[in-house]
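Subject: Predicted fold for Hyphally-regulated cell wall protein N-terminal domain-containing protein, 511 residues

User T.R. writes:
Posting the sequence so we have a shared reference for the thread.
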Amino acid sequence: MFDYMLIHRKLLLLLFIVQLGICLNFDRSAIFSGSQTVDDGITVASGVEAGFEAFELVTINGDISIADSGQLCVGQYGVSGNSIDITSGTLINNGNMFLSDWTDNTVSLTGENFYNYGTFGISSSATHITFLFSTNLVNDGNMFIWNNDAHTEFEGPESGAINNGVITFDLCPPQIPSFLGSGCIRLKYADYMSIDVSSPFNQTLNVINPFTPKLNFTGSPLPNNNIVLRGFETDYPWQFITDYYPEATDVELFSYTYNNITGILNYMAPGSTYTFDIGTGFNESTIDLGTPGMILVGPLTVKQEAPTNCPANPYDNTNGIFPCDDFFPIPSATTKIAPYYQDSITEIISYYSTIASDRLPTTVAITTYYIPSINVPPVYTTTFRYAATTFTEVISYYTAPGTYMGLTNLPFIRTTSSKLTVFPSPYATTLTTDSMTVSGVVSFYISSDISKSFTASTTSFFTETKNVTTTVTEYPMGTIYPTSWFSKLINGTSTTTYSTSIETYVVKTHS
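User M.O. replies:
I've generated the structure tokens; pasting them so everyone works from the same file.
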């Protein structure tokens, strides 16, 4: 036998996916912060967590599709100041979808077709919740509607909603539509709720709180309706109200029969018979018909167990009623400090949210370095004797680029030395080029060629780096590598040659 419902579901889902090519597509986990308007629908891929939080108003228009193990959260549990307005032609949830707002706000979810095969929930203390789908309302998964103020409007198509899963109402709406299927409707704090049994109704109603519920069954009941009532307590009776007949003031016009083997209770009012499956174990002395149009049943000696088609909802407890508040916090900034000569380098990594090219928010990391200037020691000379000869040693310093804390081309101090025999004494000199001044030492030595020996000199200039402290994402730094040669024959003329080499580089922050 063909499963027409399954075929219908798969064809509809395929058609829906084809139509959603230009919608807001969550193919990676992301969260919007602040008020948003989405006009072209939403898709959430498998395994992806998507959401909207910290807003005054989120408006979503268009079809919504959530894949297996995908999750869409709109709002934050317990946070005041946000309203939700969703209008969807077709909403298909194969994963998880949760809506939440809080005090003095509204949740509105309306459309034509609603299909839930995963977990769907509304958690709110709003002044009004509207859940209305006009053509199809199908639940094969787990749903909960939690409203702390009991202002909930829950409506389905005139042909009836289909529930083969579990729907939990916490503080029940004033009325629910007709339901077909083999599912369960769990009622918490069912103070008063109206059910029209003149339309098809085939569900298990399981009351799961210890207070006396008031269930109002209106209309002339259809003979094929199957109304199963469970959750009777040992301390509280249930109060059923049927259509009130003002002309029937005689309680003798109302009667009942109860079969303790089948658990079937028939309540006969003028012109109508209401049939309820209340289970076994009732003492008929606890069934009261003292008020026309009302029947009081219970309590039981032993509390009824929950039926097998009414498992507890994993999200309807106080700690997990809305599982995705603060689900993508932006990381706090981090600071790292490392020594650098007489000072230190500070690295700060900060984060912010921005919209990427795929229309989704993304968290961006910015790395900022605070780099101090370094002092290059001045050149100095020392003398020593070796084999009856006096030598002069010149100690000089320069900088060379290195890598440290993720920075490249960071200047580090290096040293060099040269030994000179003593004839003329070395002396200091300077060279200025490109607005940068470097110092040097002119020293002397003996050289020779193929014909004679002579005294020559050399000028050693020392590399100078101009350091820049910055708080921006990139900054320029420059290093000058000057060289100069000076040579002089004993009885000849002197010649001097200078050359400089400038290296410029950029240190960039990392993101």
